Structures are given as structure tokens and as C-alpha cells.
Amino acid sequence: MSDTIPKIAALQFACGDDPAINLARAEELSRKAAAQGANLICLPELFLTRYFCQTESVDLFELAEPVPGPTSAHFEKLAAELGVSFVLSLFEKRTEGIYHNTACVIDPEKGYLGKYRKMHIPDDPLYLEKFYFTPGDLGVQVFETAGIKVGVLICWDQWFPEGARLAALKGAHVLVYPTAIGWHLSEKDSHGAGQLSSWQTIQRSHAVANGVFVVAVNRTGFEPTRRDGMSPEGIQFWGHSFIAGPNGVPRAQFGEADEGVIMTDFDLNALREQRHGWPFLRDRRVDQYGAITRLFDDGEI
């Protein structure tokens, strides 16, 4: 790693129906982040569109594109121009009938480095992702860019400790979680604070348990269930993107409605200090973990 301290940025913004407008907004904020010294810029999950998984419609498969493809190529040019790296979340068309929720990593010199396909696919009210996405088949991926080893996971993956641990074991310094998560309006008053706290806690715990930085980058704004905007139902995305250090403490964070850029220095010494003081990786009992590969350890094989 060079003597220059890399800076990690996360972009939080509301997403609309027009991919061109969303792309322009992402580029505007990326330029702002680069001007502020960012080296690695992380965008929210599926930022090119509204969160379309609130309903099931075969017409929405038309939103998908190859990865690599036109959007990654656009950001390759932008990365080269600005001298920055990107983590992008895209709706990938692999072939007719096989689509993925995919994140790719762009390097300013090498261009497209590769991709990760979301492995854990939710199926909850207004989060009907199993209709659209085939579970990822690439395993956990770690990419080296901007002088950092970056592990990329996506949204629902953030609730599972296994992916975070596997990324750390592959050498990740930073875990990036592009995210689209929010409240059902009917639940916000009764459950909202607890849900948000759980989301923050689980990801901060990945930082602590693995001695890594965590970038949780969410969108903001209300998106109605019906695309014509005439539905009172929908998701109020809770924003609150944050970047936590290896001790789990947020170093930069947004509120619910904020739009813009947050940034922090990547500090390898902080990572070393956390892992030396809390040597969880050293004290793992890998010889005792065989049951972790079973769905449930009830004695059935």
C-alpha cells in the first residue's frame, strides 16, 4: 500500500423513475466526492431506478443490462477521468430468464475489475426480490483497488455473518454493502426505530468481529408501490448511510433525508490495532465449525 491515505466515500440520494436522471445525479455526486479527495466511491443498491421489487411485473425485466455493459462502461470513463474507483450496484441480465442483483468494481487504471452477485435474496412484503433475482453463484468476492482490498456484498447479505467473515478471510480491509432498505409506512411508528437500530448494529458488529471498515450505503426518499405514484403504500427509505471503522464506531454518517457525500480516511493502522487488540481471527475454532454448513443441526443429513 502506498503512503497516501485513501479516502472512502458513500453517496446517498433519492432515486426516481428515469435512469438517465439517476445516472446524472450519481455522476454529479461522484464528481463532488472526487473533488473532496475521494479514492473509492460507493453507490446505493440499484441506484439507476426506483426500487422496482415492490411489485412483480415481467415488464420490469427490461430494466436489466449486461454486466459489464453500458453503465459499467460509463463509469470506467468517469473513473479514468476522475482518478477514482467505484462500487456500482446494477440489475444484471445474464440471459433471458436469469437475472441477478449485481455489484461491480471499477478501477481508474484497469477499468472493470469484476463483479459480485447477491447471494441472499429476500422475499418479504414490498421486497419481492425472488421474482427478479437468481441467487448469486460467484461466491464472496474481494477486489483490490484504490490501495484497499474491498469485499462487496449487497443489502440482505448484510444480515448474515458468514459473508462478512468469508470476505475478511479473503483479505478484505473494507466491506461495502450497497443497500435499498426502509420502512413500510404502517410500521414506521411502531417498529421503525428498532428496525433501524438493528440494521446499524448488525453491520457495525461485522466491523468489530472482523476488524474491517464497513460502508453501508442506502438510498433515501419515499417510493410508492405503484409506479404512477397514485398509491398511498410504499417504502420510506431510511437513509442513514454510514461508514464505520474497524471498532464499529461510525466515522461518517447521514440522517434519514440527507443527500450528498460522506467520507472518511481509510486507516490501515486502525485495522491493525483492532485485530491485534481483539484477535478474533486468531482464536477461531475452525475445527469445531463443521455444523455451520448445515441448514439446521437437528441430526438430519
Write a short abstract of this structure:
The chain has 301 residues and is an alpha/beta fold. The protein is built from five helices and 15 strands. It has a single domain, classed as Nitrilase/N-carbamoyl-D-aminoacid amidohydrolase.
Could you please describe the fold and organization of this structure?
With 301 residues, the chain is of the alpha/beta class. The protein has a single domain (7-293), classed as 4-Layer Sandwich (Nitrilase/N-carbamoyl-D-aminoacid amidohydrolase). It has helices at residues 19-35, 70-82, 161-169, 185-210, 268-277, and strands at residues 7-12, 40-42, 85-95, 98-107, 111-117, 141-145, 148-152, 174-178, 182-184, 213-217, 220-224, 234-238, 242-244, 250-253, 260-265. The strands form three sheets. The protein has a six-stranded mixed β-sheet, with helices on one face. Strands 6-7-8-10-13-14 form a six-stranded mixed β-sheet, covered by helices on one side. It has a three-stranded antiparallel β-sheet with strand order 9-12-11. The longest helix is centred in the middle third of the chain and has 26 residues, at 185-210.
How many independent structural domains?
1
CATH superfamily: Carbon-nitrogen hydrolase
Proportion of strand residues? 25-35%
Succession of helices and strands: EHEHEEEEEHEEHEEEEEEH
CATH architecture: 4-Layer Sandwich
- Helix fraction by DSSP (H/I, runs of at least 4): 10-25%
Give the integer mean of the pLDDT values.
Answer: 96
Strand order of the largest sheet: 5-4-3-2-1-15
Cα Rg: 19 Å
Q: Which consecutive residue ranges, at least 5 long each, have pLDDT under 50? A: none
CATH topology name: Nitrilase/N-carbamoyl-D-aminoacid amidohydrolase
In DSSP terms, counting alpha (H) and pi (I) runs of 4 or more, how many helices? 5
Distance between the termini: 46 Å
Count of β-strands? 15
Summing up helix and strand content along with how strands pair, one would put the structural category as alpha/beta
Shape: globular
Describe the largest sheet: 6 strands, mixed
CATH class annotation = Alpha Beta
